[in-house]
User: What shape does this take?
Amino acid sequence: MNRLTIIIVNYNSTDYLERCLKSILKETRADDYRIAVIDNASDQQDFSRLERLSDRVQFILNSRNVGFAAACNQGIRAFPASYYLFLNPDCVIEESAIDQTLEFLASRSTAGIVGCRVENPDGSLQPACRRRIPHPSSAFFRLSGLSRLFPRSRRVSAYNMTYENSDQIHEVEAVSGSFLMFRREVLDDIQGMDEDFFLYGEDLDFCYRAFLKGWKIFYYPHARVVHYKGKSSARARGVSDYHFYKSMEIFYRKHFAGQQNRLQQWLVFSGIKLLYAARLLRTRLVGH
Assistant: This one.
């Protein structure tokens, strides 16, 4: 068993994947780690050049797109380890970020999941790297834009925690699946990713289930990666949008619908459908 398995789910992101792999190999000093690339039936599946980068890199080539969550679970089953890292192929590792995050996680026995500082290419913070679970009220504040108007309000801006200092370590309820490190013991409690989520939402669900089992989740800003967000899904924007809003419905139905009456459920599901319709209209009018 390796100490660390880095799981990268790839779909038509080969150019970004090469840069990601090279950054891992350059910036990671740990001796006992493996990189597992799970390819979800990309248009081009000849990765022989990338396999030659290092004997640490191994590929699983799926004959169809099984989704992000299912592919992550494939990596977990195929390459057992004491610690795992879910990493997006359009990420670049900076300044030993994996080593630093692993050291932080290993030094805290009650910590189950850790995420690092995830930045845009211009150096700004991607808010999804430190989050609270989106209860219906916090989801409304975010999707309505109110959280951007009141970034220091603990109630209105609860989802992305913009009231917290992004340069300081703090506990959160969820981190981004673009860089999500966890210890193997978490799997004993939550059994991996929920494969009902095809794309989006699976990271929130994974973190929430760990949180409910008593594991602490940390945002660790002293490690940093650059995430070229959306590059891996930009080629199929319509499909991505569908799964984004579908994941909202799955997450709400799984975790909160049973706690609310039929009117409240109807309002939430109707709201999700209206948001999706508005997104389709915007895409048709302005193209993004």
Summary: DSSP finds ten helices and nine strands in the chain. The radius of gyration is 19 Å.
